[in-house]
Structure formats: structure tokens, C-alpha cells
Write a structure and sequence with these properties.
33% of the residues lie in helices and 22% in strands. The two termini are 49 Å apart. It is a multi-pass membrane protein.
Length: 282
């Protein structure tokens, strides 16, 4: 009854199912891996944002780097803004509007500097027009903000290029920017959230990072891929059972698949049973 499973059509179906099942297993495992990775990152960022601010020198140093574990940690730094070294960071979107980040070095009493992202300003009326940028405070200030690692093409997805207008950059890259300054910069930069004393006018603050669902979608996709495995196997078994049932039904009724003709009134009478008149030729 199940010899049909060895026909070319069914052999092709077996191969497809046997290829689909491990593919779905691997896709589900990949999604579960992404869920674990994003959940861990989300938990780390949430803890960092809620941490007590510490002095920025505790987490970074001149010419140093900011570790991934310290990303978004609240820090404080005291000093005076170097308004002459202020830069505009191009192509930064906030509230679905393209504009600039305002990046101003803050020089500490020790003589070292740290880049401070004071916030976002809307782009000018034309591509060549400079935006309106509130001036930084002139006296000594204490800045509180989120510590961020330096930006690179790999980490930001932004491709750097030369030939930009004076005073503008594409990446907040501490090493590249620090090479133009007469003092050493701490690694990374600070995303301003509070300043004391407060500035009379300031750019729009940069929103806190969106922690998101911690990879919830990846978990759902992983479960979905593994459910597809059950669907593939169930569909395969269902097709086999239906084919076998059709063959049994055909055999029971003497259909073409059985190779026999049915008994009963519809079956032609044998030649020996023909009427006597026909045998006599009448």
C-alpha cells in the first residue's frame, strides 16, 4: 500500500521536508540567540541609566576608551567650555527632523578636556546655511550626562568623508577631534542631561536611549520558526495518510488503481453467457 512513497514525486517531497526541518531549527536557534543578546544588552543599559553619577575620570582617561559595560553610565564633569573649538555633527535626526548635534569641549581644572554633546539643533533653511546654535555658558559649569564611547564607521554605520565645511564633522570620534586641540581629551564623550548653573538658552536635549522590548520580537520569531517545524511534519504525514486512504478507497471500489474491474451488474457478461439467438446468428 505504501509503495507510492518511493515514486519520484514523493521522493522529491521527502527531500524538501528533510531540508526544511533543519533550516527551521537553525533559524529558530539564531532568533533565540538574538533574544538572549538583546535582553542582556537591554538589562545592562537599564541598570546603567539608573546608576548614581560618578566623576567621568573614574570611567575613562585621556586617550583612553569607554568600555561597553559603561555605556550610558551617568557621569559628572566640571570645567569651562571651549567655545572656539565647538563643532557641529552633521546628519543627526531627532523627532524625524534632520539637524546637527552641538559638540563643545569642556576643559577641566586639571587641563584635560572632554567632549560634551550639548544637544540637537534643527538644520538651516538650505544645505549651506548654518543653523542657529545657542552659545555655551561662559563661566565654570558642572555637567551631568550619559557617557558614550567614541564613534567609528563600524559602530555608528556612518561613513566618514573629507571636504566638510569648517567646524563640521560626521562622527564624534575623540581621537580624530583631539588631534586638532592643544589639550588631551578623555576617551568617549558625554551626552548632556543637566547643567549647573543652567544655561540661558540651550539646544534640544538628546532623548534617552530606547531600551525597547529586550528582544521580545526575536523570541516570538524563534517560537514561530519552531512551530513551522511541526507544521511541516504534520503536513507531510497528512499528505501520506490521505494518499494511502485514496488508494485503499480505489482498491475497495475496483478503481483504476486496483487493476481489477468491479463485480456486479455493471460487469460485461462472459462470451459463454451470451443469448442463444446471438450464437445462432439470428
Amino acid at each position: 500500500m505504501y509503495r507510492f512513497l518511493l515514486t519520484p514525486r514523493w521522493l522529491a517531497l521527502h527531500v524538501v521536508v528533510l531540508l526544511v526541518i533543519p533550516a527551521f531549527v537553525l533559524l529558530g536557534q539564531w532568533q533565540f540567540g538574538r533574544f538572549t543578546e538583546r535582553s542582556t544588552s537591554s538589562d545592562q543599559i537599564t541598570r546603567n541609566l539608573a546608576a548614581t553619577p560618578v566623576a567621568v575620570e573614574e570611567l575613562t582617561s585621556p586617550g583612553g576608551t569607554v568600555s561597553v559595560q559603561d555605556k550610558y553610565r551617568p557621569v559628572t564633569v566640571r570645567g569651562r567650555y571651549d567655545a572656539d573649538a565647538q563643532l557641529l555633527v552633521r546628519r543627526r535626526v531627532q523627532n524625524k527632523v534632520v539637524g546637527f548635534y552641538v559638540l563643545t569641549p569642556l576643559i577641566s581644572p586639571k587641563g584635560t578636556g572632554v567632549l560634551v554633546n550639548r544637544g540637537w539643533v534643527k538644520a538651516g533653511a538650505t544645505a549651506d546655511a548654518l543653523p542657529e546654535v545657542p552659545a555655551p555658558s561662559s563661566g565654570e559649569v558642572t555637567v551631568t550626562g550619559r557617557l558614550r564611547p567614541t564613534e567609528t564607521e563600524e559602530t555608528s554605520g556612518i561613513r566618514d568623508r573629507a571636504g566638510l565645511p569648517t567646524g563640521q564633522v560626521l562622527l564624534i570620534n575623540t581621537e580624530a577631534i583631539g588631534g586638532r586641540l592643544p589639550y588631551r581629551l578623555l576617551g568617549g564623550y558625554v551626552e548632556l542631561t543637566e547643567q549647573s548653573p543652567a544655561a540661558a538658552a540651550a539646544p534640544d536635549p538628546v532623548p534617552a536611549p530606547d531600551v525597547g522590548g529586550g528582544g521580545g520580537l526575536n523570541l516570538a520569531y524563534g517560537v514561530q520558526w519552531w512551530l513551522f517545524i511541526g507544521v511541516a511534519i504534520g503536513g507531510w504525514v497528512l499528505l501520506i495518510r490521505r494518499e494511502a486512504a485514496d488508494l485503499r478507497a480505489a482498491a475497495a471500489t475496483g478503481g483504476p488503481e486496483s487493476g481489477e474491474l468491479p463485480d456486479g451488474p455493471g460487469r460485461p457478461a462472459p462470451a459463454e453467457q451470451t443469448a442463444p439467438a446471438e450464437r445462432a446468428g439470428t
